[in-house]
Predict the structure.
Amino acid sequence: MVSEKSLAWGRSDNVIRVLTAYGLARKAEIGADKVFDFSIGNPSVPAPPAVDAAFARLLQGDSVELHAYTAAPGLMSFRKAIAADLNRRYDAGAEADLVYVTCGASAGLSICAHALMNPGDKAVAFAPFFPEYQVFAERAGGELISVPPAAGLQPDLDALVQRLDEKVTMVIINTPNNPSGVILSAESLSRLSNILRGAEEKYGHPIYLISDEPYRELVYDGTPVPCPLHFYDDTILCYSFSKSLSLPGERVGYLAVGSRAADKGDVFAAICGAARSLGYVNAPSLMQRVIESCLDQTADISVYKENRDLLYNGLKELGFDCVYPDGAFYLFVKSPEPDAMAFSERAKKHELLLVPSDAFGVGGYVRLAYCVSTDMIRRSLPAFAALAKEYGL
C-alpha cells in the first residue's frame, strides 16, 4: 500500500519545483534570454581545475578498484583528510573515526534525524530554513518545531526557550543561511549554546546541535563563520561539497560528530545504522577520491560576490528593502505587499522568477538566487525597475 505521508509530500505544492517548470516553459516559449530565473540555487561557476585534473589522473588507474564499494562510512583516507582539513581550518578537534561520508548534505540531515529521533521526538529549526527539514524530521517519526527570526534574521533565542521541552532531541542551524545569506553570529551561537546546555541539564539527556553548513566557504568581505564546535560540545557538522567545489550533482558530503559530544561512540554507531536503514551503502567512490585531493580548493566565489553587489545595490537603488547577505548566494528581499506569493506572481508578469519566503517558514519576503550569469542580472534590472514602479517605490 502506498504511504499516505510520502504521497502527500510528493504531491505537495513545492514552490521551487513549480517555478522551475514554469521557467522552462517560458524559456521555450519566448526565449531563454527573456526570462530572468532567480529560483534555483545551482552553482554557476565551474569546479576548480584541480577537480578535472584529479578525474583525469584517477581514471588512468585500476578501474575495478576505482569503482568498487568503499566502507559504508567512506574511505578511511578521505575521512582522515576531512578531519585534518577541519582541524587545520577551524581547530575543530575532529577525529576521522567520527566522520561519516554522505551522499550530500541532505542525506546527512536525513541520517541525523533517523539516528537521533524516536517517534514523537522533536527537532527545532530557526526560520527561515530549508523546507526539507520538516520532511526529514517527519520521516523519522518526529516533528519539526519552527522558531521565528529576530532582528537581522538572527534566531529569536527567547522564542527558542519557550519551545524547548523534554521531547526535543536536536536543533538545526544553517549558516550561512539558505535563503537569507545571513551568518549566525558568535554572540548568537554563544547564547544558543548556553540555552541548550541548560536544557540538557533540565531534561536529563543530550540535545544535539546539527550545523548544516554547505555554504561555509561562500562568504564575502572577510566575514568570519564561527565554528559551532567551539561553543557547544554536542555538535554534529553536516557538510556538502556541492557549493564549495561546484559539484552539486555528484552528491558527496559528510557528517562529523564532535569529539567532545556526549555518547559520541553511540551517536556515530546510530548514524551508521540510520544510513544503512535508509539504503545508503556508500557515497560515490570515484568522487570521494577526487575530492580527497581537492580539499584545499574552492570554486571562484568572486563571481558570486560581484553578482551579490550588483543585485543588492541595484535593488536598493530601486527602493526595495533587502537583507544584506554576508554569505551563500541568495538575496532575501522584503515583499512590497504583505503577501509574498502575490508579489512573486506579479513579478512573473515581468519574467522575473522569485521564490516566496513562505516556502522557508517565514512570510513577507522573496528569495533570489544570484548564482546566475552577471549579464542576466544586468539585463534583469529594467524588469525590476518596472516592478518597483508598480508599487510606487
The first strand starts at residue 36 and ends at 37.
